Structure formats: C-alpha cells, structure tokens
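Question (not urgent): is this output format expected?
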Amino acid sequence: MDQLLDERSEPPGGAGADAGDHAAPGVAGALRGCRGAQPQSHESLQSLRHSAGAVRLRSGARRRALRAGVARRDRGGVRIHDRARQRVAADGDRIARPTAGAADSTGGVRRRRNVGHAGPVLVRWRSDRVKRRTLYLYSSVKGTDLLGKALLAARAAARGWRVYLGGFVEILHLVGRDCAPGLLVENNIFDSKAERLAGLKDRGFRIADLDEEGVIYLDPERYCAEKIGRRALEATDLVLATGPRQEGHIREHRPRAADKLRLTGNPRFDILMPGARTVFEQSAGAIRKRCGRFLLVNLNFNPANPGRRTDMVAKWRKLGKLATSRQVDLVRRWVDHKKRLMEGLQALLVEVARARAFERIVLRPHPEENHDTWREWAAGVGGDIEFHYDPQSGANPWMLASTMMLHAGCTTGIEALLLDLPPVSFAPEPDSEFRLQADSVSVRVTTAEEFLEQARTWETGGERARAIVKTGRSLLRPYIENVGPPFAADRILDAADGIDVPETGTARYAIGRTCRTLADMATAAGRRERRRVLDKSSNAFRIQRFPGLAVEDVRTPIARWIAAGVLERMPTITRVDRAVLRLQ
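Got this back:
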C-alpha cells in the first residue's frame, strides 16, 4: 500500500532540512526507478550529501535519467551528473535504507547487495512549512483554456495560495493520491464523477465547478442534465456561472445549487480584455507577416466529425448524458444539422477560393475534431486553402492577425467580439432550432455570394466594423459576466474566500517499491485510470488536445501581463511533473 509520511511530523534533521521549491524535476523522475526497501522508521533516514562517488541507476531508471538530462553514460554504467546530485542534496531529499544497511563514511549512497532489495529508497520531502491554501487547476484543451487558468493561478499566488496547474489527467492523478487537500476546480460535474468527488470531499477537499463552455448550449434542461449531475452536485461547494443566463438556467433546473451559485464569469475571457490580450501580440504579428491578407475559418464540427470516430449519440447515452428520449432525438437532429452545415461550408469555401478574394484561406479545426478529414479535403481542393492547427496555441492570435474571420456556430465568434473584431457566421438555415448565441452576435451569411459581397467592402478597423463590434458586445451581457472589468479570476478567488479551504504545508511524497513522488503519478499503477479518463483514446488525440506543459508556457505570458500592468509580480514557478507546475 502506498505510504505517505504524516505531514505533521518533522522531517529528520529538523527545521533546517526543508526542501527548496526549485527541485530538479528530472532528478526525481530518474531516481524513481531506484526501487528498494521501505523505511523502517524515521531514525533510519540518512541525509544525502555530496560525495565523490556517483549514484548508480538500475535498468529502466537509466533510460528515464538519460531522457531527463540528469545522467551520463560511462564505462561504469549510467551515473547521475554531479550537479544533479548536488541539487538533490540541496533540496533536502532523504535516503531511506533498512536497518541492515548503513550509509558510507562520506555520507553518500552505498548500494546494498544480496539482501533481496534492488537499491535505496529515496524519500523526497517537499515541505515549505508555511501553511497555505492549495488550489488545483487543470486545462482540458491547452490552446483554449490554459492562459485563462494561468492568469487565475498567478492572481491566486499573489493572494497567498499555493497553486498546482497542469493537464487534465495529471491533476486528477495528483489529487487522487494522498496530497494536501485544497480547492479543486472541475470542468463540469457529471454524475460519473460523483464517487470520485465524494471521496475527495471526505479527504478535506473543496470542489468548484467551472464550465469552460457555459456560454453556448441549445437546451437548458439538457445542459443541466449533462453537465451538472444531481449526485455530483452534493459533493460540490461552488458552482461558478459564466453569465446571468447560465445562472438562471441552473437555478431553474438545479434548485439545490442555489446556495452554491456564484456569478463570476470565466477566466478564458479575462485574457481578451485590453492589456491582458498583449500576450497574443507577438504571435499575431508573426502570423500576419507570414500569411498576409487571409481569411481565417474557425471550425466546430465535432458532432459530425468526431476526433475519436465514435457515434456521439451512442456514447452520450452510455455515459448517461442523455436521460430522456426527447434529449436523444434533439441530439440526433443536431448531429444531422452539423453534417449539413459542414457540407455547405465546404462548398462555400470552394467558391471563395475560386474568387481569389484573399491571398489564402486558413482552416483551423476544433481540438476535438478529426483533423485528417479537413487535411484530406484541403489537399483535394488545392488552391489557396491551407490547414493549420497548433495544439500549443489557441485561435486568438490567428483572429487578431486575420483580415476576416468566418465561423459556423463556434465560441470563437464570441471571443472575436471580445477582441474588438467583427465575426462573420455561416448560417444557411436562419430559422433553424440550432441557431446558437455565436450566430446571433455575428454578421450572418447564407451563401457564398453573400459572403463575397461582405468581403469586398470589409475593413477590420473601419467605422462599420466598430459598429458591428459595439452591437455584438451589447448582446453578450446575458451570456458573459466579464465582458469588462473586474476579472473573473478575482471574482472566483473572492468566492473561494467564502468557503472553508484548509491550510496545509506542502505534501511529502516517497519513492520506493510502492511509494511515489509527484513526478511518478502516471506510472503503471495509474495507467488503468488514465485509459478510463481518456476513453481509451489514441496518444495522437491526447497530444492534439494537451501536448504537455513547460514552465515557459506560463512564465512568458505572466511576464507580459506584468509588463502590461495586469499583474504585479512573478510567482515562483516549479515543475513537479511532466505536465504539472506549482505557483506560489
């Protein structure tokens, strides 16, 4: 059974042995392969000090150490670099060894032989001894919501929170272990999550629900049935509404959530405000220089072109998202509508390409679509139609760089207005029951001829464009609370101040035969859960949504926000896993 050393106990060596926040991430990842005996007692822990010898690694740990860049090959095998060993020692890591062995005279690591153990057990103490509230944030789609979560994390750190920010699966594994309880911000609270959320609640966690797509939905009853499960709601402390419309629908269809509801807005729209949007300027300039005068087409056809090639209706019925026959029929009609819309848009783009109204046409698909469908279609059409998708960035810099932006019922139509850009919507069925909010706030066209007529007189910064933006933004108020200041991030943190989030020190983790560090959350013991969470999707599809997380992915935008006056200081940012960062 995994063992977590009691957080309240003092690490061997007393107060002076606490770990720094800048531990080398590769060291823990490399050393996790050094499996061995479990600690017999606190007295058996010995400090790891710099010594003349090198720490020897075994089998699979060698490959991990080499990939992490903290080891080298020599005639004696794979050894950890001297600098890496010094950083391990400086971080206050401990070596646990059974009572039958002892450290050598230099305080280094002496490998045990012929005692039935594979090597030493490294116990990593990560304790800053300062009790703080802990906030857990995950990004489901890196290009869509990471920057908003990064802004929320930075503002939380400025208020004294300890924040873990990372990928969806990695954060779920982190909170699923014996880590410090805190506030977990979930994206939707399906009833399928009820058991997990109840378990976290029993461990002292607080749960907040923040829907990243709470602006666009068709039917309020189906929305609440799908995304706010009755059982999961019982374990939830806060339900954060993006706008007054969503808040009213939740009150109507989930009356038990009334005392948990807070109207906050969503941080993904904070980053579109003047000042905060400066994070996109450099990328937008590079795109504009490379692409010239181009039409950006933001696609959103996941129901008709799913990335996992599955029947969406059958899948949602299996997951319990469609509770009634009425909801099943509605979704089937919706999927058929999206198929017709997709075919109509393809025909429109062929006509626009022939007219050569733009230097090029850039297709940017939804992260959950099957991208091969659009690649093959663009290659078959040829001409000036290009396919582009970068999982590291979202659509915002592309919209800022574009001459004109076209969508077909996508949230990017709303984001364009918040960037002070006039969006155009392809809506060939104006009386359709599936006309969405993004269509209503955009300039609507039904044919290629209508679109080309708009394109001939289109000026992004002209008087007509400014009038379109002003009218569209006024229509957004019922849907988005943070169309203007204050930031949704601040409203969310104010709401969190109203609930009892426990204050704890940083959790301590161990590496051994069964004990693991934060960097070991995605090992074989957790792979079954990883496959379940991701619905057995391919690795390519996972990368398409969230390709990983580097420190610079967060540090660079924060630095630009500081320069723009949005933030006051740079938080301490530490990598604790492949796709998890800690800010404080």
